[in-house]
């Protein structure tokens, strides 16, 4: 064997011996450390409890290990108590918040139910008005197939049910029924729209709008038997008197037509007469100013003058008449005036 290999063998043996001795010393040190720790914790302690009375003194022996373990257990119990107590307080707070939110939700639900009831009351009025309008126009409304057989107090009985899912709340069922009814009402309303569109020219030829632009008017004298405001005698008032408590408010042509009279007299003051189709005439009297001329063609809603106090008048107002042929008729029947306004 060469000398070099022998030298390497000796070095390997020496290194292995040193590692083995070092590892053995390390294990021995660790063992010695645990032995010392065990001896420290194995030291005996005597705990004496001396009562203030003359009863017997209580004493018991333990070691440091058992005492340390007891302290750790007590500390763990105390820590757990405070930790879970804090968690319980937090949970109670969350429960209180959820209860408050639940109360608010219930209040909102009650409000929703009230609004749902109001909605069905409005829907009932809409249904009656629509049915009356359709009857007047000769339009037949398609009846729904399924009818609810519940008490009259349940407004949902006005409408048909359509594939109501089991388990739905009464409010959801009502909304579904209302939706079904409204979907069925679309077609007749569209028919009304088409009819009005085709009759648009006819409506323009009928004195069907209010002759005063200012919405804050009142009827100072209605059509028919009245007491004369100047003479105090009984007489037949042949028109409607519109008052806005001032002069200068615009007066409108209530239908399309041709101006046939623009003049003044001591009774009507400044007045205009417009001839419309179908033998209808309208008169506008006591005007402050006139905006049209005789022979002029005017459109429905066009300004023809202003309210005034000319002629035999006790204050600013418009005297408005509607004539059909030789007959004088109540203008309120054409323009849906509320006489109590």
Note the beta-strand portion: 15-25%
- Which word captures the global form? elongated
Radius of gyration: 51 Å
SSE order, one letter for each helix or strand: HEEHHHEEEEEEEEEEEEH
How many strand units?
14
The low-confidence parts are 144-164
User: What is the CA-CA span between the terminal residues?
Assistant: 136 Å
Structural class: alpha+beta
Average pLDDT figure: 81
Oligomer: single chain
Fraction of residues in helix: 40-55%
Biggest sheet details: 10 strands, antiparallel
Number of helices: 5
Provide tags for this entry.
341 residues, two-stranded antiparallel sheet, alpha+beta
Short description:
The chain has 341 residues and is an alpha+beta fold. Helix content is 44%, strand content 22%. It is built from five helices and 14 strands.
Written overview of the protein:
The chain is of the alpha+beta class and 341 residues long. Strand 13 and strand 14 form a beta hairpin. The chain is elongated and about 150 Å long. The termini are far apart. The relative contact order is 0.07.
Chain-wise SSE layout:
Layout: H1 3-41, E1 44-49, E2 58-63, H2 64-137, H3 170-198, H4 200-204, E3 218-221, E4 224-227, E5 234-237, E6 240-243, E7 250-252, E8 257-265, E9 269-275, E10 280-290, E11 297-298, E12 303-307, E13 318-324, E14 327-329, H5 332-335
Antiparallel strand pairs: 1-2, 3-6, 4-5, 6-13, 7-12, 8-9, 8-11, 9-10, 10-12, 10-13, 13-14
